[in-house]
């Protein structure tokens, strides 16, 4: 058993925590009480901290994450910065030394009760240091400052006091990081490598192998082990449902699970890439995924959550599955015995059940090319930022001569698993893409799945939303509407209203 | 010699826009909250509740022995351990360790252990046997079964029947709307330890340290002078820490007394949501009449609040609801009945506005629904009914400064360019079949002071040290509202010192006793009056010393920005203070304030319970997506009356924060209980941040403009200011009414929109569907069948 340590605010600290102690609780036990627990499920951001994560080779990206979710041990060998590490409050005889983000937040009334503030400061600092952030032409917009600050960077932070306006003002007032700022300088060096961690405590074992083969062999021996990538689901299980797994296998830094490959026939996305990494790597080239990302939880979650985790938990309301169904994606399943490829449409077999065998993990997701030219993702939720879908609908359609040549519709939230709207697809294929077809297909769509009543929405509303989604799609992507552009140059446009 | 309450000296520290006094601590994470003390306190025991899985049940057996076998478990606290009274309430109706479970999640006992994990495992091991009993969950069930608690009250004036009889248009309706979870980001927390000599010291996240102290003493069988409660600061309160902290502090204190070790009670979010009270949901039935010009003639209404399992503050909340049904409108003949349902849910409690929002919502909803049938723009209908100077409320209080209602509406309409935007929105809607916009302006009139007159008093303790530095204590608590910031400004103003000379100490019951809750928006009015009083006593004593030193009369001495001057001479503050000490002049003072001129007959519901009214108005514009019912808040403009602001940055923050919190209550935040007959009956199904959604950045209007009403000196309050904590919450009615307008645009002219509340996307979608259906029927020239609204609004004329 090696000794684990985490560099907090520049100083290494030995970490002798149980595998079931969150980074947040560990930090607070160490005396860093700036980060707070507000919800313990990654919804409020009061616990947000900065972590030095890999960026382009040789560089580091300050990445904001919820400290309440990962086990502290998952940060073994990593660098963490909390609000206390960004600046210092007043001490006897000395005034405060504030970071530019802290200065703006303090001066503009960005804190009232102050409890959510350290988390806001960290999430805001991550965006402050984002290398791509650049001044925009024109004035501030509701969701992007003239300084290039993307407000979605704060979509996972809740404040109950201010109503957010002064926080937005603080964010949009930020200038560029000073090159002499140590965190700015830190970006120019590679992020810490993943540490090979193996800790056995009385109440459980935490192992981070550095080789896929080792991992698969461990998994073959202990098929019930919890696979931990971003911990955005496992952390909630631990905190709210008090799950205590005997063995946790961390897979988030395995290179084999972090591929992003584009070739003529497909895009392969490693199952342990974070959604933020995929978003940056694809840079809008898969429009349906580009539509999904801003609506998928929050930036704090996307900085940790992975496609493998989202699909692996098998939740019927995960937003990735409907989109990937519409994209006709396959999953690459790996085990000690080798790899196999399974269509996502055949992956789920029941509520949180799948064809994944004992000892298998999702290594990658493959999206076939070319992409359908007419796509849309509709997420129906109470709140626009960071909510869980009542219903999610993803549509990918190809027209030929004004007729629907092919269409795939993925649905979330209307059955025990994510499903394809097969009856609706059938009602569309071969039909002229006109209002009559759309209206008729919408009626079919309204009867897809078996929606339930729950605290998010009524079954009746869910069904209505299915129907409305198709009407909306027609309104937005009727035959005369211009086509979306994808990033692969693989699309063959003809002039007769067809898509290929 | 005290100066008039509202009068400001030249160059006062009040009125300056300064950052929150703890802002530097907040942003660096250095600010300490109660639970941050745990790691700084050696030997702390952690507590975990055993929560009952029934809405209503008898506890027939409780076996704690299995818990004691869990490693780390030190003790299980049960009713048998209580040395004093097993009651955490103010009416002997809230047993701390209940023998009868009154709601799903009710804590029946608490486990103390060396770690939180051990405490949790210990709680799982406690064996409790329950005998389930019948439960009442919804307001509908409670009304049907006549499950009520507390007193029924009525506010009335004139003859409601006569008012209705002379009306040319009459409507009746029914309206049920939801409560609200406080969701302060810092959950309830207490840390107790026993000092030397049996003195109990409790650090508590409480809005009401005195009452926390009293209940801890009550449970422990101690006198108040044996218990000290301190509140460093709260991570939000909003009323949720006015009553709810007491029992938790008592558990911590009891554990500490019994084990001799510090005990920490901190609820995690799930426990907090499932165990603590919330804003009261309400049900209302009403009948209203208007004359031919749309003037309100008569209103008869019955309001039923859902009080949950115990009375808590429900009677006071109901009283405020009844006193605010009128909102900003004169109703000559009115009779409003109020009653409190008892249900098997958390005991609903104070929440920003304290019943006022619920009362006012009934009126604003009613006007929004009736306007189309009256053929009036809802803004016009509202304008025609505003209070005029000289008129009184139904409970007999003159509406002083009623002209400000018109003033704030005119000003906000002008700043928001309301008339132009009405036209633009009409043009937009005509060309946009699937996305409709709506705009609405609504006013707020909110009474300031505790309805219960006795609570309108406060104390302060101000020390001047020999080096001239100043430390102030007062009875109010800081929960983010900026009270401490304002109190420093008040002290600096009263003493004539720069703000940097004033330090503020945490709120403690051994410094200032017998305080009222920091609630009812009254924190600055009451504590500001007390701080000012204490400072002026000291200033007057120093003036005598300075007069002697400067060779002038005391009346000629002025202190400004730390310089004491009189006649031709001047000297630094510090020099006068040192000289005063040498002359044996007392350099500290206790200050006291009580609000004058209040009287209230709680039985007749008549009197003048409020020192003054706070006024405001908002214009909000929304866009509704007809496919989903989802909407965006495009712009909001607010003009609000805070008197002469003590601290503009703080006040604007309160206005914006209150507004967005109100938007959350009215449009987004939805509490759902399992009302099935299954095993989960009574369980709160929205018990986490993932299922109970409060506003995020997406609810912040794209454009939000707040202006403070100028030249608005309030003679009856400290330095001419007005309270600001609660009133702005109700500015959010403008958003819900704008949604109603946008929904109406999907239907034919004159369509009456019945909108569920909270007006979630789903609720808006169904209202849009109803509007579209009405339009389809109209366009086919078929006799219009009764739309859904008519099930609620029965036209009786």
Automatic annotation (TrEMBL), chain A:
Record's keyword terms, sorted: FAD, Flavoprotein, Iron, Metal-binding, Oxidoreductase
PROSITE patterns: 2FE2S_FER_1, 2FE2S_FER_2, FAD_PCMH
Tree of life domain: Bacteria
A molecular function GO annotation: metal ion binding
PANTHER family: XANTHINE DEHYDROGENASE SUBUNIT C-RELATED
A Pfam family hit: Fer2_2
Designated name of the protein: 2Fe-2S iron-sulfur cluster binding domain-containing protein
Region described as Disordered: 478-500
SMART domains, per database record: CO_deh_flav_C
Residue ranges of every copy of the FAD-binding PCMH-type domain listed in the record: 199-372
SUPFAM superfamilies, per the entry: 2Fe-2S ferredoxin-like, CO dehydrogenase flavoprotein C-terminal domain-like, CO dehydrogenase ISP C-domain like, FAD-binding/transporter-associated domain-like
Lineage per the UniProt record: Bacteria, Bacillati, Actinomycetota, Actinomycetes, Micrococcales
CDD domains reported for this sequence: fer2
2Fe-2S ferredoxin-type domain sequence ranges: 2-86
UniProtKB/TrEMBL annotation, chain B:
Gene: xdhB
Alphabetized InterPro entries for the sequence: Ald_Oxase/Xan_DH_a/b, Ald_Oxase/Xan_DH_a/b_sf, Ald_Oxase/xanthine_DH-like, AldOxase/xan_DH_MoCoBD1, AldOxase/xan_DH_MoCoBD2, AldOxase/xan_DH_Mopterin-bd_sf, Xanthine_DH_Mopterin-bd_su
Pfam families reported for this sequence: Ald_Xan_dh_C, MoCoBD_1, MoCoBD_2
Family from the record: Belongs to the xanthine dehydrogenase family.
Annotated keywords: 2Fe-2S, Iron, Iron-sulfur, Metal-binding, Oxidoreductase
Residue span(s) of domain Aldehyde oxidase/xanthine dehydrogenase a/b hammerhead: 28-134
PANTHER family the UniProt entry points to: XANTHINE DEHYDROGENASE (PTHR45444:SF3)
Record carries keyword Isomerase: no
GO terms for MF: 2 iron, 2 sulfur cluster binding; iron ion binding; molybdenum ion binding; xanthine dehydrogenase activity
EC number: 1.17.1.4
Coiled-coil stretches: none
Cofactor dependency: Mo-molybdopterin cytosine dinucleotide; [2Fe-2S] cluster; Mo-molybdopterin; FAD
Name used for this protein in its record: Xanthine dehydrogenase molybdopterin binding subunit
